[in-house]
Amino acid sequence: MVQSKLEPTQLQRNEPPAITSTQPAPDESRVNGLLRQLSRWFERSPLPGPQHLQALYLASPKDEAANRLAREWATRYEQAEDDQRRLLLNNLAQAGNDTSSESAAQLFRRLYAQSDNLELMVQLRADMLRWHTNEASLSTLEQPLAALLSSWFDVGMLEMRHINWDSPASLLEKLIQYEAVHEIRSWEDMRRRVAGDRRCYAFFHPRMSNVPLIFVEVALAENMIADVQTLLDPALPVDPLHKARWAIFYSISTTQSGLKGISFGNFLLKRVIEELKSELPKLKSFATLSPMPGFTKWLEKQSASDIKKMLGQLAGQAASDDAAGVSWAQRLQAAVDSQEPEALKRCGLRLAARYLSGMKGGQPIDAVARFHLGNGARIERLNWAADLSSKGRRQSASMMVNYLYEPEQLDSNRAQLEAGTPKVARAVQKL
């Protein structure tokens, strides 16, 4: 889910990004010729060749003809279907093959300044990410755009709005559409997610004020919640707020694939925590109820010797000491509905603990763990049979994890992670 940047940006001042260039001025006659050709092309053909599009990289930032063509290209792109968009992007990338990354950044600054459409820039990157596997040139073009988006989506600019049952239906529908952790199955389910003992917040960019970027869902409870079935049951009564001592983050969903890899980090949770503490001063603890989306795939790759090493004496107690990861994954997935011995449950929890604390390339293996541990949380508790949905069974043998956020410990926990060892509660260490 990249360090936050809190410096003011040009977008905060509602000014278009400045277009600068460190490249030497090209031959004016060449550029003017390219611009004339491109002007004629826009009048009669939907698909410009790369040689024509070079003018968008090479022309002076103040060249009105190039800027007009940038506006026309952006308009054509917005109106095009996928097949034409793909060709437009591919030709644009090929036109910049011999230019620098700064020239590519200048191109996108020009497109944004002339179109005045930040959502289009996000869509451009989303399309690049969709098609870069088969269009290698898009990868080179995507990187400068990602860097620009990272600065344009400065976390200090995002607006947080409380979502409740009285919010516009269109916004509630977007929450249903983009909920990525726990599917919202009905309007009754939706109503429970925004009830009195729940909080839902959406984050917006001021230049995309009608497009929610991120949804954060929170349950307010008397104790730390251990399973999602209880949390999401729409038939359960609303808990009285005066008893709430815990805020449980149970879903964080992003809506824009074009912002993939551009992390807003702990800024989001800090904003929500501050809002909750202001509204409910009796709240004392903040945690998550989180999935382990990569656990089963990871376990299936483990050899029998890997399993023995991780389980130690527990492997023999579970009578599967010679089984490899695939067998263990199948057995743990089936164990939720059976009367397997307690030893198997202990094995599953220990394997999950090893997975969550595992590191690769200096980062936690699990994507969700990477987000929360990177924000300074610690692995607090593992929960057996916590998500009985088909998705939960498939991804993590129905296990879930609580990450604990202690504001005074976030910095030290992050430092420990950077040193190569994530912070893990003692109870999890003993599994």
UniProtKB/TrEMBL annotation:
* Gene3D superfamilies according to UniProt: Malonyl-CoA decarboxylase, catalytic domain (3.40.630.150), Malonyl-CoA decarboxylase, oligemerization domain (1.20.140.90)
Q: Which Pfam families match?
A: MCD, MCD_N
Boundaries of each Malonyl-CoA decarboxylase C-terminal domain copy?
Answer: 156-406
Q: What are the residue boundaries of the Malonyl-CoA decarboxylase N-terminal domain, all occurrences included?
A: 76-153
Q: Where is the composition biased (Polar residues)?
A: 1-24
**Chain positions covered by the region annotation Disordered:** 1-30
Which PANTHER family does the protein's record reference?
MALONYL-COA DECARBOXYLASE, MITOCHONDRIAL, PTHR28641
Under what name is this protein listed? Malonyl-CoA decarboxylase family protein
**Species of origin:** Mesopusillimonas faecipullorum
